[in-house]
Specification:
- With 258 residues, the protein is an alpha/beta fold.
- The protein is built from nine helices and twelve strands.
- The chain has an eight-stranded mixed beta sheet with strand order 3-6-2-1-9-11-12-10, sandwiched between helices. Strands 4-5 form a two-stranded antiparallel ribbon. A two-stranded antiparallel sheet has the order 7-8.
- Strand 7 and strand 8 form a beta hairpin.
- Helix 2 packs across helix 4, helix 2 packs parallel to helix 9 and helix 7 runs antiparallel to helix 8.
- The structure holds 3-methylbut-3-enyl trihydrogen diphosphate (IPE).
């Protein structure tokens, strides 16, 4: 029987210590793994780069733009993402889950979806496997590579699979009304796009545009008629709540067909 798919992005700010190079936040990862054991729905996980992929992509000056980047950097960035993926996958195995790590190159050609492959991971998710993929440096053609962020990968997967629930977990509670009050907005409509993105403009920037990028992708997914939930992934119970549709603290970007 087809069940509602839950697509979850674990931001680099949740699974790593962003300020500390190559440092995974094992406690946060283990907490999320335990939270996932509570769920009885098909799940696909995408994780970010944090102090792994972003650390090296900054060192090698690599961006989302397709270009002739240092080829050794391509190896190093990719390898660091495989290493982080292993840490997350092994945490999930320890609590009895059935993760299946895979690079985005198994699902896309550059930034374009391979629809049949993406449908396969949904079928895998229905058989209790949890595909765990990630933002990565990807080959785009010729001698060019580019960074495919985990956020952009979320949009690619959401457009093909139209999950029941789409969750972005970061280290903040959601989208705030303004910088001064830091009042959380529970629900935003597509029309609020510009203001919400403006808010994050001055915030942290990394190879893929930090929080602003996440909000932009959330709106992009919502514009295809799907609700997107933004939550604090450092509190694993919020992931369970968001996946069960009982979220109390977070921001829902309401989907509407454009
Ligand atoms: C980053 O993915 C991928 C690389 C830099 C290789 P994301 O852009 O989704 O990572 P976070 O969540 O912001 O850390």
């Amino acid at each position: 029987m087809l069940q509602g798919l839950t697509l979850i992005k674990l931001g680099g700010s949740v699974v790593t210590f962003k300020e500390k190079p190559l440092a995974a936040n094992i406690d946060a990862i283990d907490g999320i793994s335990r939270a996932l054991t509570q769920l009885d729905v098909p799940i696909i996980i995408v994780h970010g780069g944090g102090s792994f992929g972003h650390y090296w992509s900054v060192k090698y000056d690599m961006h989302t733009k397709s270009a002739n980047y240092d080829i050794h950097g391509v190896s190093i960035v990719h390898e660091s993402m495989i290493a982080l993926n292993q840490i997350i996958v092994n945490s999930m195995i320890r609590v009895g889950l059935n993760p299946y790590g895979m690079p985005p190159s198994a699902l896309t050609t550059g930034h374009k979806p391979i629809v049949a492959k993406i449908k396969h991971i949904y079928a895998m998710a229905q058989s209790k496997i949890i595909p765990v993929t990630f933002g990565d440096v990807v080959y785009v053609g010729g001698t060019k590579y580019s960074i495919l962020s985990g956020d952009a990968l979320m949009t690619i997967l959401a457009r093909v699979l139209r999950p029941l629930r789409i969750i972005f977990a970061t280290n903040v509670d959601g989208v705030y009304k303004d910088r001064v009050s830091r009042e959380l907005v529970n629900e935003i409509q597509i029309e609020d796009k510009r203001r919400s993105i403006e808010f994050f403009k001055a915030s942290d920037t990394d190879a893929t545009g930090g929080m602003q990028r996440k909000v932009t992708e959330a709106f992009k997914i919502a514009s295809h008629g799907m609700d997107v939930v933004m939550i604090n992934g450092l509190l694993p119970e919020r992931i369970t709540e968001a996946a069960e549709g009982t979220l109390k603290i977070g921001t829902v970007v309401k989907g509407r067909k454009s």
